[in-house]
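New here. Your pick:
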Amino acid sequence: MQMGNWRVGPEGKGVNSTPHRCLLDLLCLSVCLYWSGLRRGGRPSPSEMPSPLPCNLLTRRRALTACAAVAALTAAAALFLLATPPTEDPTHPYLLASLLHNTSNQPDSAAASSLSPAQPPLPSTSILQLQTNLPSGFTTVPSMFLVPSPSPAENLDDGSMEETDPPDLKENPPAESAHFLQEGHDMKDHAMLLPRPEVPVPLWSTAADEELIYAKKEITIASLVSNDPDLHAPLFRNVSVFRRSYELMERLLKVFVYHDGAKPIFHSPELKGIYASEGWFMKLMEGNQHFVVRDPNRAHLFYLPYSSRQLEHNLYVPGSNTIEPLSIFVKKYIDFISAKFPYWNRTKGADHFFVACHDWGPYTTKMHDELRKNTIKALCNADLSEGVFIHGRDVSLPETFLRSPRRPLRGIGGKPAAERSILAFFAGQMHGRVRPVLLQYWGGKDADMRIYDRLPHRITRRMNYVQHMKSSKYCICPMGYEVNSPRIVEAIYYECVPVIIADNFVLPFDDAFNWSAFSVVIPEKDVPKLKQILLEIPDDQYMAMQSNVQRVQKHFIWHPNPIKYDIFHMILHSIWYSRVNQIQLE
């Protein structure tokens, strides 16, 4: 060690920190003064310890006094050094212990996962950090929650509903989803081809797990149902299994709703427009007193009450062509609740769910692996080809377009089958890969095929958009930017048989319904043969399908106070059924 601006520390590392330099200088000065004082007193001999200072400079008393002063200064400097946060390279051996000390106060997922449900929540930072800790360069737009902008659908004079032009979000699907892209697969094939999703093993068992095991056993031995006045058997894949599962859901299911999160992204349902499904479910779920519990230790499911629509509304920067701020926000939220509570870590998110009807809902999960792979995602954009929607775990959410939240049943119904004079009808904007082809082959070329880009004013004066749907046998429901379309449920509302054109689309409630009983599903490649396919359907088959549309309608209707078998309960049942199916029986 030598005096100066550079010294050699442990393991040959250089130390050039100002606090370190001051401390070492004071220590050296203290030693020099002490030995100088000792030498004046005759101990030890000059040959044993040469004096670093002139002998006539200090008396013994002065040297000892100075030594005591330097020692006091040294102690003060040491306290200052310990209290000062390190500014050196984190790899420096002197500062590594300080960094570990600072980070040890932050809860991590491994520590949280070791907690039992009875333990208190872990300390955490404010949820406000979720809104402020975005990367530099991202800014949030002013909140529109207090005065929501109208849904894009309301801006079209023909009454059709459309979505805003999205950024380019498409990516190459992961390798494990490649088999969905093989041409010729339909939804019946998918049920046989899909491997069973992997289910994380819970870190500890709960009474709720035992109830799920009981429910699964009961469903597998469901009694045969016949002539149930509330359930029309031809609509269902297996009406006996559905009814038993629904009964068990009503009797057993408990849901815990996370209260963390500030408006408008959390707890702010939007009840109007094409994203109404996620808003109505949020409103009815949070206000439910039958299924919702305050004690999370009793819960079979955990609801993440954020809105994908509000994410887009408040965090997306128009023109940025990226939804990364939305994905970062969602990731931080999951990190927050997994650090604060032990429940996410118990199952790695397998008993958690969220509901998202915005097209971007699936994409906002990609920054959190457990959220993307394990959580039950109820999505309108239920596209198998993109590797996000997991058939057998995730739930296809019906996209419902509501014009009046106060009167959700307004205008429902249509003409009897015998009075429907139009063979097929579609009107809407030309986006996506299917609609331009549909217009190319059938737009204005056949009187039976009423296919329009936008309804011309000369036509809307006589018959508007809704009247066309109520007067048509078949309502064409082609995909738009994504596979889902609000026209499917809208056709059911107006008692028009939906014709669905969207490859790789998992239809809503496919775990329960037999869609061939009340709809027609056509591969995209068969658009040129559309009229031929429809005309080949026998009249008695069409009449049966149209009658089934009327019967299935009640399962797609929102009620301010939910009733049995309505759309709220159907969505919740699909989520419950998915969770029950994750349970492994010995």
The domain at 417-556 is CATH 3.40.50.2000 (Rossmann fold). The chain has 20 helices and twelve strands. The longest strand covers residues 472-478.
